[in-house]
Amino acid sequence: MKKHAIIPIFIPHEGCPNDCVFCNQKKITARTHAEENVNIEEIASRYLSTLSDPRPETIEMAMYGGSFTGIPMEKQNEYLSIAKEYKDKGLIDKIHLSTRPDYINEEILLNLKKFDVDVIELGVQSFDDEVLMLSERGHDSSIVYKSCEMIKNFGFTLGIQLMVGLPGDTPEKAVYSAKETVKIGPQIARIYPTIVIEDTKLLDMYRQGSYLPLSLEEAVDTSKKMYSILFEAGIKIIRVGLKSSDIINEDGEIYGNTFHPAFRQLVEGEIAKEKIEVLINDLSNIEAPSKIALVSNSRSFSNMIGMKGVNKKYFKEKYPLYSFFYEKNEQLKDYEYEVQLIR
Ligand code: SF4
Predict the structure, then answer these.
(1) Ligand 1 mean position to 293 CA, how many Å?
(2) Most exposed among 197, 233, 303, 324, judged by the fewest C-beta atoms under 10 Å?
(3) Full-prediction pTM beyond 0.70?
(4) Residues lining ligand 1, CB < 6 A?
C-alpha cells in the first residue's frame, strides 16, 4: 500500500516577479499560460480518483511552481480555502507549499496558519551570498535565517531546497550550504543539480562561456556530500534531482549533462559504495582469496548494486581476489549495509 501520496498543484509564474538566472518557470511548471487560473478541484478530484483503497496514510496537497506567498493575498486565499475544505473533509491530510525566503513575514504566516497549512518549503538554493548574487536571486542569505526561524516558531514543518552548481558555486560552498541547513534544522530538504534550460539567462551565460555546467559526475559527487550531511543530521531528504516530468524535455531543451532521470539513485548508489568500501577495508583477518557477502535490506538493495550494477563491477575490479555475494536482510535499516566474511 502506498503510504504517502502527493497531489501536485502547479501554481504558475504569477507569484514570482523575479527572474533567477536558472529559472524558466513556464517550463518547470510545464505550463504555458501564466495568467491561467489553476483548477485545484479538478486536479484534486482526478488524483484522488486514482488512489487505491484503502487510502494512503498521508495525502498531501502540494502547491509547487511559483512563489506561493508572492501571489496577491486574495488569490492565495482562494487557493488555500479550497485546500482547507479538502482537509476539513478528511480528503487530504496536509497542505504543503513552496516559496521564496524573502516572501515570508508575520502577516503571511498568520494567514497560512488560518488556512491550516502544514509544510512550508523555502527555495534557499545556496547560503553563499556570491552564489545568490550571481544567480540573481534578489536576496542574500541573512533573510533565509530570519524566515526559517519565523516558520519554525509558527510551528510549520520547514523544508529547505538547495541547488548544486549554480554560478559561482563550488563543492566547498555547497557543503557549507548543507552544514548551514543542518544548523537551521528543517524537517525536510531537497537537492537539485542546476540544469540549463531554454529561455533562461543561464543558457545565455552558457553560450557566452561565462557559465560552465558541472559534469554529471561532479554534480553527483557534490550532491552526495550534501546528502550525507543532511541525512546524518536526521533531515528527511524528499527529493534529489528533478524528475523528467518537471521539465518539458521532448525537444532536447536541456543543455549540459547534469540532468539524469535517476539522479537520486546515482547519488545513493555512490554513498552505498563508499560505505561498503569502508566496511570491506575494516574487515580484519581477511586472507585473499575470500568470499564476502554484501548485505542490505530490499529497499536499499539497488543502491548497494549501483545503477546498472556499477558498484558490483567496481568491487569486482578493485578487489579481484575476493568473490562478492549480494544478499538481503530485512532486519537492516534503510541505507544500512553489512559486509560479512564467508568462512
Ligand atoms: S524565485 Fe523561484 S519562481 Fe521566481 S524566478 Fe526564482 S526560481 Fe523562478
Answers:
(1) 47
(2) 233
(3) yes
(4) 16, 18-20, 23, 25, 66-67, 100, 123
